[in-house]
Amino acid sequence: MTKRTKAILDLLDETYTTEYKCYLNHETPWQLLIATMLSAQCTDARVNIVTKDLFRKYDTLEKFAYADLEELEQDIKPTGFYHNKARNIIACARRLVQEFGGEVPQSLEDLTSLAGVGRKTANVIRGNIYHEPSIVVDTHVKRISRKLGLTKEEDPEKIEYDLMKVLPKDHWILYNIQIITFGRAICFARNPKCEECFLRDYCLEYKGKRKKGQK
Which GO molecular function annotation, any one, does this entry have (predicted)? Predict the structure, then answer.
């Protein structure tokens, strides 16, 4: 790990602590899996509103596995892309019940073999449920890691591999949690609060703006 990367992580630790948080409300591994599937192109806050009633109605994995497709679509409609999400949730839940004994698997290979589960969702489960060092590349991590010069890639999987090389394993899960908080509080996609930013000295975009301003 370079001195520069260590300085960035130290500032994140100092500002946001090293406490592990999951922003999606859940009580079981399968609930987190479904909540994460619903969070694609949707805010965690909206997902939590939807799952509050959803997990009361479908209080077992079996109820999701054998749910009526059109009814489930209406139940999850506020999260967007509800046709695909409902189909994937039913297919995923059914496979978990029929092939995995109702348990959410731990390996990346098994998780990504489930309908609607990509690397991002799989790593959320591995990190939060099984405490396996995993890097979750969401929109905040993609955008801010590029700004901080930790990757030049655009593809989430390539970004994941870049971050695995530069971040120590004990920060793989933590980095995502901290960067989400940072992205929501300071580094907005539009109109970031650069003057309030404690990482601006390490931000390539901020330095670029300053140079243009000096010309």
Answer: 4 iron, 4 sulfur cluster binding
- Amino acid of residue 14: E
Residue carrying structure tokens 């959410």: 104
pLDDT of residue 73: 98
Which pLDDT score, from 0 to 100, does residue 215 have? 42
Model pTM score: 0.89
What is the set of domains in the chain, with CATH numbers?
3-19+136-214 (1.10.1670.10), 29-128 (1.10.340.30)
Residue reference for tokens 């009814």: 71
120 labelled catalytic:
yes
Q: Which DSSP category does 91 fall into? A: H
Which residue is catalytic, options 44, 85, 120, 162? 120
Could you say which of 44, 75, 85, 138 is catalytic? 138
Instruction: Say whether 138 is catalytic.
Output: yes
Q: What pLDDT is stored for residue 148 in this prediction?
A: 97
Residue 92 assigned as binding residue: no
Tell me: is residue 42 an annotated ligand-binding position: no
Say if residue 22 carries a ligand binding annotation. no
**Measured distance CA(187)–CA(102) in Å, rounded:** 40
Q: For residue 75, give both structure tokens.
A: 């139940």
User: What is the rounded CA–CA span in Å between residue 173 and residue 159?
Assistant: 14
CA–CA gap between residue 75 and residue 83 (Å, rounded) = 11
